[in-house]
Amino acid sequence: MQFTHLPVLVTLAASLLTSSASARYTPDWSLLREHHTPVSIDGLKFGIYCHWGAQSVLAASDNPDMTYLEAIDAWKGEKFSAREWVDLFQAAGAQFAGPVAWHGSGFLHWDSALTDWNSVKRGPGIDVVGELTAELRRRGMPVLMSFHNNRSIWGRISWSDPTVLDPTGEADCPLYTANDGRPAETLLQGWFDRITEAIDKYRPDIIWMDTSFGGTIVPELRGHALQGRLLPDGDNTLERAIREDYQRKLIAHFFNQGILWGKDVEIVYKSFDIPPGIGMRDIENGSLKGLQYDPWMADIDMTHHYQWPHIWFLDDANPMKDANTLVDMLVDITSKNGRMLLNVPPRPDGTFREDSVRELLAIGDWLRINGEAIYGTIPWVFFGEGPNEVILEGHHAQGKDRGAHIARFDARDIRFTQKGNALYAILLGWPGDGATVAIRALGALGRLHPGDIESVSLLGSSDTLEWTHTADALEVRFPTTRPCDFAYALKIERR
């Protein structure tokens, strides 16, 4: 038998498979549900991104009359270094990171062929997305790109805004009134073209679509809807949002590009902007109560939201959260099947404030000791035990009332994660030198049967722990020396 044409056949078969795979997803919600959060992305529990742009100039300016157009010209980014940014991300223990690619106006943070209103041709003259993405790739870190197009979808800078495709510039912009107050086709197509340009050019692993993607957060925040249910006294008015056919088309394009690139990809969205089972839901500057059955993300601002409107961008009136608080959030979110995306806002020149660097390095120190209890873990049947839980859940909950609703945990609060045969019990406070801790969820009358536990150790400690597995609890005597500054992870090896 002759096999002289085998290479040709193999090449043809591979081509057909690639072609078939590239057309796997069509813009249909039912078919898009065939995409599941990849294991490689589900294992990402801590990421960093940075709100940086012309808004950083506005937040730092003493001139209340400065316009956005003036802020673009004043944004120089003269000390920006993608290498130094990623150095900091890695020192903080982040597994993934990325740029805020588009925020609040028609001004783009990448080298776009669609508009000259971008960060290469105006402002700093920097391809922020391109430089940061390239540096992350050099380090082997997955790339997240976020798109925050706000309530108008496109976002105007002024009534004479050259980034808006409105030839009249009138207050009743036809782009927003062409379809009974809905966006005109030109606007929707312009949005799609810009997002897909960024996707195709920079090949992100994760894209995150903020509020304008589906608009369902508005009825929630107004108290008109709850957990996907329109309340009897609520109206169904959404903010100006992307039409469903464009949503489906964009998601299908991204998923299919992931197949062509040969890598895992995921989309993150707000609230109930798309049907469940497609992508990953995000909670903005907040958390959720209880164990969640679907993977989710919380994007947490490193600064407190004391003074508006310049939240998310660096405003010296908004102090930094400390590492202890942020580690507790990370542990609590991870135990509930989530992950934390931390916003670290730079100065307008592209450098980071000293206190943010200090707290990030402290997080990194903690993760170097305890990262195995976070990275690549999955939830257990209990997410935790103890008296304290998230006080107020949902969007913006951590920012309301000057941080009054941020949960304050202590040594009685324990959170569980697991990986392989290891079960991790993370105490959110030090119980005391030489103290004995009883973990009720691990009692021999519960999930773990007698003889299930083979060993118990404390991450970062070389001390041999004394432990007893009773009917009511796993009792562990802690050493007299702390292995780290906050949150202490017991590693329980099971048979």
Briefly say what this structure is.
The chain has 495 residues and is α/β, with parallel strands linked by helices.
Which SSEs are present, and which pair or pack?
Elements: H1 6-22, H2 29-32, H3 39-42, E1 46-50, H4 54-60, H5 68-74, H6 82-91, E2 96-103, H7 128-138, E3 144-148, H8 174-177, H9 185-202, E4 206-209, H10 217-221, E5 225-226, E6 229-230, H11 244-261, E7 266-270, E8 280-284, E9 296-301, H12 323-335, E10 340-343, H13 354-370, E11 384-385, E12 414-419, E13 422-427, E14 436-439, E15 453-458, E16 466-469, E17 474-477, E18 488-494
Parallel strand pairs: 1-2, 1-10, 2-3, 3-4, 4-7, 7-8, 8-9, 9-10
Antiparallel strand pairs: 5-6, 11-12, 12-13, 13-18, 14-17, 15-18, 16-17
DSSP summary: helix tally: 13
Question: Which stretches are poorly predicted, pLDDT < 50 over at least 5 residues?
Answer: 1-22, 165-172
The level of helicity is 25-40%
Major sheet attributes = 8 strands, parallel, barrel
- Our count of domains comes out at 2
Distance between the termini: 53 Å
Tell me the strand order in the biggest sheet: 1-2-3-4-7-8-9-10
CATH topology of the largest domain: TIM Barrel
The CATH C-level name of the largest domain is Alpha Beta
Q: What structural category do the secondary elements indicate?
A: alpha/beta
What's the number of extended β-strand segments?
18
Strand content: 15-25%
CATH architecture level-2 label of the largest domain:
Alpha-Beta Barrel
How does the overall form come out from the CA principal axes?
Answer: globular
Rg, please?
Answer: 24 Å
CATH H level, superfamily name of the largest domain: Glycosidases
Mean pLDDT: 89
